[in-house]
């Protein structure tokens, strides 16, 4: 049997090889102890995971993987260390021509083919089985089993290779299932699956590419040119072009704030300094570089900058007459509010208060229309009421 010391030496060699290729990644080895860290990654484990040792139990993998990814680390999980034992060929003793004595030659022992030890995991996996081939190596090393590179389950528009896409069951909460995959060998943060998606996946009605579109959409989108994050972006404003002087992401550290611990966008445009809580979709778009700073500023700060392009995204549901939209000052509290006539005897919507920025865009810069303002504030209510049977609406109106 191979010694523990030899195993550690081989894992250390593999760690150094992977670290040279992926210097910024955290490399985890799946061993008998659980998941093990090597080299400088041990200090990262102590700092982020509060580890006292260089390894942790498998049942902690889900939580620790989330903590590492959340801290901005890329993860490589190596569960394919080949553990094998080889025997050296016996050397053939040379014939002595001086004493002319016939020396018996030892029969050369054939090196046995090593058995590949693989760790299997409980998971629903569509990936094709790994193929193995034996190649001739030097006489001192014998024959070693080698693996063919895993065929990608899909290749993104950016040329990234998606592998290891699968669903797995949570060990801490068996009712929960997660989908995850690797892109170019780097582990993605697991995403909790919708129960309907899990059923469809098990029935082979959903494929890995389709699940990637649902749970990692920005990974499949075309990346914007690097120059978009290297030079200042310019947006057309109400009084001329606006230059984005600064744009970044930060985590709120003020414990007194309601958004403490959340990731936020910060933008500086001229003398305006703005921040807002970032949605998961926009955060992914930022980190995956599939949206420019200009697009993210327009999406998150367009109302504060009174951009016409920001309001163009808002459209009323079909069937609403623009003439029935009313923007007026409330006589009781003096605030500007918007409402809409639903038509067909369905009455009007509730009156929603306008923000200062939206009111300024509507009345001052005129970069927003009444229809766009109504769509921004009332679309959800309008859609819900239009979907309800008319008889129920009338009945409710009569009771009032």
UniProtKB/TrEMBL annotation:
Residues 110-135 have a biased composition (Basic and acidic residues). One of its GO terms (biological process) is mismatch repair. Residues 11-54 form the DNA mismatch repair protein MutS-like N-terminal domain. Gene3D superfamilies: DNA repair protein MutS, domain I (3.40.1170.10). It holds the Pfam family MutS_I. GO terms for molecular function: ATP binding; mismatched DNA binding. InterPro entries: DNA_mismatch_repair_MutS-lik_N (IPR007695), DNA_mismatch_repair_MutS_N (IPR016151). Residues 92-169 are annotated as: Disordered. This is DNA mismatch repair protein MutS. It comes from Duncaniella dubosii.
